Amino acid sequence: MIRILLAEDVSMVRGALVALLNLEPDLEVVAEVDRGDAILSAALAVRPDVAVIDYDLPHTDGITAAGQLHERLPGCRTVIITSLGKPGTLRRALAQQVAGFVLKDSPASYLAEVVRKAAAGERVIDQQLALSAFSDGESPLTGRETEILRLASQGADATEIAEALHLSVGTVRNYLTSVVTKLNARNRVDAVRIAAESGWLM
């Protein structure tokens, strides 16, 4: 059973989402909150597997709350639901290690599927939104990710990158996995190509 925390400030929408998610045989909403600054304390109390968070919440926005969750409860995966299909919003979500990003006009069955994939460790992002996020000229990579990818583009392997940057090999591999995911690349070589063609390795 996948345990879910749901954060949505509109009571009717929250009730509908709880009902829809609880209809699924493998999903259970174990906590619900109506404001962003209540998410972390509720999550620490019930330890959900996945937090489904509305982007536009009072007091603390959903992406900021997702970042706090990732820091304090890294085992809890986060899925952002939003009506704001903007590239900048998606880039912020990716920077906070959000596992899923779902537009509110998606079918209810799609949200359930995203929750399952997030719980399984996958990242699910709307394809069209991902493409627009990465095609407007601004790199989605952090400074450290860019630095690691630049070294990889010069032929360095994970061990050599780790030695050069005084990191563990595991940490370097995690960064490279994040880069491949953010760029929607097939592998590390493809990620280098995408970043180079976009001018992000300068």
How does this structure look, described?
With 202 residues, the protein is of the alpha/beta class. Helix content is 51%, strand content 15%. It is built from ten helices and six strands. A six-stranded parallel β-sheet has the order 2-1-3-4-5-6, sandwiched between helices. Strand 3, helix 3 (62-72) and strand 4 (77-82) form a beta-alpha-beta unit. Helix 4 packs across helix 6 and helix 7 crosses helix 10. The N and C termini lie far apart (46 Å). Keywords: DNA-binding, Phosphoprotein. Residues 134-199 form the HTH luxR-type domain.
Key attributes of the depicted protein:
single chain, 202 residues, alpha/beta, 6-stranded parallel sheet, 10 helices, 6 strands, elongated
Q: How do you describe this structure in short?
A:
The modification 4-aspartylphosphate is found at residue 54. With 202 residues, the protein is an alpha/beta fold.
